[in-house]
Amino acid sequence: MDPxxxxxxxxxxxxxxxxxxxxxxSLLPVIAVNLMIYAVFVYGLIRNWIHTDHLPMRIGIPNxxxxxxxxxxxxxxxxxxxxDPIVVSVSLSFLYLLDKADGVAAKVLDQKSRIGELMxxxxxxxxxxxxxxxxxxxxKITAVLLVIAFLRYVYVIxxxxxxxxxxxxxxxxxxxxxxxxxxxxxxxYWSFPLPIIEVAGYLAAGLIGFTFIRDFYHRLV
Length: 221
Description:
Elements: H1 6-24, H2 28-48, H3 55-59, H4 61-79, H5 85-97, H6 99-108, H7 114-137, H8 146-161, H9 173-189, H10 195-220
Helix pairs in contact: 1-2, 1-7, 1-8, 2-4, 4-5, 4-6, 4-7, 5-9, 7-8, 8-10, 9-10
């Protein structure tokens, strides 16, 4: 399969799954699909690089980091009722920070791959989904913010249906900074639900919406 179709395929799979999770008030449907995606991803990597002698090289160290990071994130959300809120916030902050580690490993080890880059983006998107759904189920945020969880998947599907290129999703510095700030605001909002943090979160959410509109405009022109 063309790696550039990965965002389209995962969006068509995850969008209805998010609706099911929302109806059931449970993260389990999304987690199940997430694990299935990782299983297919790892299987494909092993099959494609089966002739490489060394297993980590066959799979790719950056891809190992991505899958482990995503799996550990799932574990945190499955066990959070038994953990102190500070432990949850620290754990998620560390796991999100590891987003940079796979990129550095890819450059240093010369193991860059488009499929690995796409899976890294999918892992970040799913962290956002887990975080916002989790906070919503715990009545920490309103349903308005769930728009951010759906936004990327709806956007990819729209691009695919209007025949605009889905590949090379915008990762410009401004967009990356806004997304990072948004994630960290809500990672720590669980531990410190202060009004000023909530306001900052809504502002960051508005900026994320703006980056999608800007990206769509640039694709049109």
